[in-house]
Amino acid sequence: MFQANAAFGSYFVRLAARNSCSVGPPTADLQVTVAPCTAAPGAPTGLAYTRAGSIVTLTWNNPAAPNLPSRFEVHAGSSTGASDLLVFTTTGNGTSFQAVAPPGTYYVRVKGVNNCGPSLDSNEIVVVVP
Fold first, then answer.
1. Backbone φ, ψ for residue 73 (5° rounding)
2. Would you say 88 and 59 are in contact if contact means Cβ atoms under 8 Å apart?
3. Of 31, 113, 18, nearest to 75 (Cα)?
4. For the chain, which has fewer Cβ within 10 Å, the N-terminal or C-terminal residue?
């Protein structure tokens, strides 16, 4: 993954692979537009979980366009609305998260995040790991 800060505008980007022998041919141009965000994303919906032993998999739905998240925050607490056990920021906009959880009861929510800030919380679910 490559990240860079760029001024607002449209850019054309090409990638080429390189090894110790040479540089390969570049890809076709890809147009990238960097624009200011206009609002934080809407809240994710449909948060649910499955559990296989101590492995918990969370899944959710993206909020409706136009203000989509670029990443998500997973919040887990020891009581409703709390975030005292886990706050994890994903590195992309995938709509699932998997972790090994020790025995306990977890109150879990997800927020969408873009450069304008975080969304409201998703629905909260209670995850019990015996």
1. -115, 130
2. no
3. 113
4. N
Give the pLDDT of residue 65: 80
Distance in angstroms between the alpha carbons of the first and the last residue of the chain: 38
Read off the tokens for 76.
């887990």
Residues linked to residue 76 through DSSP beta bridges, in sequence order? 86, 108
Cβ-proximal residues to 35 (8 Å cutoff; 6+ apart), any chain: 8
Quick one: tokens of 51? 């559990």
Instruction: Kindly report, residue by residue over 45-102, the tens digit of the pLDDT.
Output: 999 999 999 999 999 999 988 888 999 999 999 999 999 999 999 988 899 999 999 9
CA 21 centroid distance within chain: 37
pTM above 0.85, yes or no: no
Match 């306990």 to its residue by tokens.
Answer: 104
DSSP state of 31: E
Question: 103 near 75, Cβ under 8 Å?
Answer: no
Q: How far apart are CA 99 and CA 79, in angstroms?
A: 19
What pLDDT was estimated at residue 119?
Answer: 96
Give burial (CB, 10 Å; 0-12/13-18/19+) of 123: middle
